[in-house]
Specification:
The complex is a heterodimer of chains A (about 190) and B (about 400).
Chain A (H helix, E strand, L loop, with lengths): L10 H26 L5 H4 L4 E4 L8 E6 L2 E7 L2 H9 L23 H4 L11 E5 L10 E4 L4 E4 L4 E3 L5 E3 L11 E3 L4 E4 L1
Antiparallel strand pairs in A: 1-10, 2-3, 3-4, 5-6, 6-7, 7-8, 9-10
Chain B lengths: L11 H9 L2 H10 L2 E3 L8 H20 L9 H10 L4 H28 L8 H23 L4 H12 L8 H9 L6 H32 L15 E3 H26 L29 H9 L3 H13 L4 H4 L11 H21 L5 H28 L9 H10 L1
Antiparallel strand pairs in B: 1-2
């Protein structure tokens, strides 16, 4: 609008700016539905919790179930595994944080903190974790690796009997999902 | 019009790019400084409105595809999921469905404007013909899009329209089976329509680019139909026409969004809320409103092949309009008889639209036949003869003179 630069603002200037502003603001506001349509919808969010009864699991057995489309490792640990996990000094851990969604974000990665549910209940037999390597998202293999915990074949991350990262490129221990016991063996994840 | 504009840019990066791809001078010359006749009225804003609607259709379409499943067992339910579950899915779908209608409203007004002001005459024949091709391509796009929700009207619309091709002797049945990918409208048909419905809008966008290119070679026609003779006949496109177009777009959107938010199903048919059933045809099959005039012409002819030829002919004949209209005067502003017959033609088109929505029998059938005859007579008899018989009104010498003489009244 250089033509008007030396003149007083005119009625036409006002109309130009008002029209342009309404057009620009309308376009900006219309953007949100186009972005939000890609977010998980209500029907997806409604599937956010999963129930599982661990009673049939024998010591040394584990299963993988699906929660929010992700694999959840549930393992009934042997006495031997629990003992080894408890004996590991915290100083040896690559990631000293529990990474348990049921605990404060700075809780230390003790074996107890790895098996605590949202109500503070501890059942050290049952380890519940999100089965996704914290490196780049592959699913680790169970009962393998240098610590006989989990081993990720993608880039060689070793997790111990409590799912804590010990060796390899992964930065964090396997995440513990939010869950709570509804009976001695039954849990609700999410 | 003004040939290659020469611009000097100060920014060194702009200069560097400009020397390799003259995009900045092109934008300045074609979208900012482009000399546009100073007398364009609001009928000229419908080209920009139509282009905006194409953009709206492409954007809403791309996001709808993220949630749609092109399969006979899943298509209807996936559309219902869009309506009920997907965040703002209802809004995006109604924007798209009503957007098709308002795209046609804009294009029809745009075409009638071209017809009234003689925008198809020399040197704008190619510009007009590209426009006709755009019109035909968008009809195909709209038809295939309407099939995708796989409701009753979707399905039977697909059956009826594809069966048009069975009218051709000998090869008809082969063509129809090729279109269907089987012996009836079924999953292969749905999937190919989905593929083409995604492709064609981008073809449309390319055609619109050619349309605008042709426009920028010959320049805008104008309500007086006079050639631009001097710089004082024109205004720079920006801000005069960018803002005028934007204002018109905003007003158009008020009406469009009024439908989207308050009566989104008004322009559709409730029977399409029932899933497709290949074993039972609804009692009253009607296309969307924008195809009703053509549909009326199809049914006005008591012969299968004849009806199909008349319907396609009503579109093809538009390509020859620049040579059928023999009048040297472009604008109907200066053609008293031309104006009279133009409005008769508009009434004939609207009548065909109304007749197309009624059962093809009795008085409506006769009305449709009269209107069909007039439709073709307008192009084949009236316009050719009128150029020789009509005495145009005196015309101002220049656009500026026309504008100033009106301002004095």
């Amino acid at each position: 609008m250089t033509t008007f630069i030396d003149q007083e603002a005119t009625r036409r200037d006002f109309l130009f700016i008002a029209t342009g502003t309404v057009g620009a603001a309308g376009t900006a506001l219309a953007l949100w539905p186009f972005i939000d349509q890609m977010n998980p919808d209500a029907s997806v969010l409604a599937l956010a919790s999963t129930e599982f009864d661990m009673a049939p699991l024998q010591p040394g057995q584990g299963v993988t179930i699906k929660w929010r489309g992700k694999p959840i490792f549930i393992r009934h640990r042997t006495e031997e595994e629990i003992k080894k996990a408890k004996e590991t000094p915290l100083a040896e851990l690559k990631d000293p944080i529990a990474r348990n969604a049921n605990l404060p974000p700075d809780a230390p990665a003790t074996d107890e903190n790895r098996v605590k549910d949202a109500n503070g209940k501890v059942n050290e037999k049952y380890l519940v974790q999100i089965g996704i390597c914290t490196h780049l998202g592959c699913v680790p293999l169970g009962e393998s690796g240098d610590y006989h915990g989990w081993f990720c074949p993608c880039h060689g991350s070793h997790y111990d009997q409590a799912g804590r990262i010990r060796k390899g490129p992964a930065p964090r221990n396997l995440d513990i999902p939010p869950y709570r016991y509804v009976s001695d063996t039954k849990i609700v994840i999410g | 019009m003004s040939g290659h504009a020469t611009y000097e840019f100060r920014n060194p990066l702009v200069r560097w790019i400009e020397a390799r791809l003259p995009i900045f001078s092109t934008i300045r010359g074609q979208a900012v400084d482009f000399p546009t006749p100073r007398n364009l009225n609001y009928w000229w804003t419908f080209g920009g409105i139509a282009a905006t609607m194409l953009v709206v259709q492409i954007l809403t379409g791309i996001v709808l595809v993220m949630h749609f499943t092109p399969h006979v067992d899943l298509a209807f339910d996936s559309v219902e999921k869009i309506m009920r579950d997907v965040n703002y899915g209802w809004l995006l779908r109604w924007l798209h469905a009503n957007g098709a209608s308002f795209f046609f409203i804009a294009v029809y007004i745009h075409m009638f404007r071209g017809l009234y002001y003689g925008s198809y005459k020399s040197p704008r024949e190619v510009l007009w013909m590209i426009g006709v091709i755009i019109f035909i391509a968008m009809m195909a796009t709209a038809f295939m899009g309407y099939v995708l929700p796989w409701g009753q009207m979707s399905y039977w619309g697909a059956v009826v329209i594809t069966n048009l091709f069975s009218a051709f002797p000998v090869i008809g049945e082969t063509i129809v089976q090729w279109l269907w990918g089987g012996f009836s409208v079924d999953n292969p048909t749905l999937q190919r329509f989905f593929s083409l419905h995604y492709l064609l809008p981008f073809v449309l966008a390319a055609l619109v680019f050619l349309h605008i290119w042709a426009l920028h070679v010959v320049g805008n026609n104008n309500p007086d139909g006079l050639d631009v003779k001097s710089p004082e006949d024109t205004l720079p496109f920006h801000p005069y026409y960018t803002m005028k177009d934007l204002y018109a777009i905003l007003v158009f959107f008020l009406v469009y969004l009024g439908f989207v938010f308050y009566s989104p199903w008004y322009l559709g048919h409730s029977i399409n809320f029932a899933p497709a059933n290949p074993l039972s045809t609804p009692a009253h099959i009607v296309p969307e409103w924008y195809f009703l005039p053509q549909y009326a012409m199809l049914r006005a002819v008591p012969d299968k092949l004849g009806g199909v030829l008349v319907m396609f002919g009503s579109l093809i004949i538009l390509l020859f309009l620049p040579w059928l209209d023999t009048s040297k005067v472009r604008s109907n502003r200066y053609r008293p008889l031309g104006r009279f017959f133009f409005w008769l033609f508009v009434i004939a088109c609207i009548t065909l639209g109304i007749a197309g929505a009624q059962p093809a029998e009795g008085a409506w059938l006769i009305t449709a036949r009269i209107a069909t005859v007039f439709y073709f007579a307008y192009f084949l008899v009236i316009l050719p003869l009128l150029g020789q018989m009509e005495r145009p009104k005196p015309m101002p010498a220049t656009i500026t003179e026309a504008v100033l003489s009106r301002a004095r009244h």
